[in-house]
Amino acid sequence: MSFAGLRVLSLESRRGPEMATLIRKQGGDPVIAPSMREVPLEQNDEAFAFAERLFRGDFDAVLLLTGVGTRLLWNILLTRYAADDLKAAFARVTLVARGPKPSAAVRELGLPAPVLVHEPNTWREILTVMRARPESRLAVQEYGKPNTELNEGLRALGRHVSPVRVYAWDLPEDLGPLRDAARRLAEGSIDVALFTTSMQLVNLLRVAADAGIEAPVRAALARCFLASIGPTTTETLEDSGLRADFEPSHPKMGLLVNESAGVAAQVLANRR
Questions:
Q1: Whole-model pTM?
Q2: CATH assignment at residue 212
Q3: In total, how many domains does the chain have?
Q4: Rounded Cα–Cα distance for residues 121 and 125 (Å)
Q5: Potential cystine with 227: which of 1, 21, 128, 246 (Cβ 3.0-4.6 Å)?
Q6: Low-confidence residues of the chain, pLDDT below 50?
């Protein structure tokens, strides 16, 4: 089995040429669109501003929307603050977790047990939970695109909302290839998308939104064969309303390409 001529999108940045070679060896037509530029954790000024306000007691609750973002926020803050001081600060507020994944991250980090938002874990369920709660000054952890509906809904409930965007990777300086990949997706000219890290999806959707084509890009991704390098990236796909069709036997780039090539064509044929 091989990709059999399928058009395969890779969003790799530093290893793009290597991915193109692997895809061609498996009979695919590679589309390489670098999607990320590394940002050192210690340059996340928005996260540090949140921490200073947390220490001052400016918040009653912190809403944690994703497991990936929760862990990243914690790791960013650890570059400047002691873990015990952070735990004490988080213990003074109510933590609200949007479902089991951020809740699991909270437990892993040794933070106080959160208020859990139940399935299907959308912004609507968060509003339902917060409508019955007394906390009024809210910090909302975001990972990637802001949740406008949630923020506006919370403000409509009379709450003060402070979004906290955390990131380890920003957009590349040259956005041309990524914009072209988003356009090709929207036009239906991509069959397979390979994701080796969560931020590839986040940045792809960010560029698509800026171009006004996020809805058709999302619809196209739902039709494509989506291969994820592992559970963390799969979680981000799920948080974005998408489903990974495949994870490799081990989280390695070569295995992602080679093993995806063995099943992608059949999965797409069955879907059609």
A1: 0.70
A2: 3.40.50.10090
A3: 2
A4: 6
A5: 246
A6: none
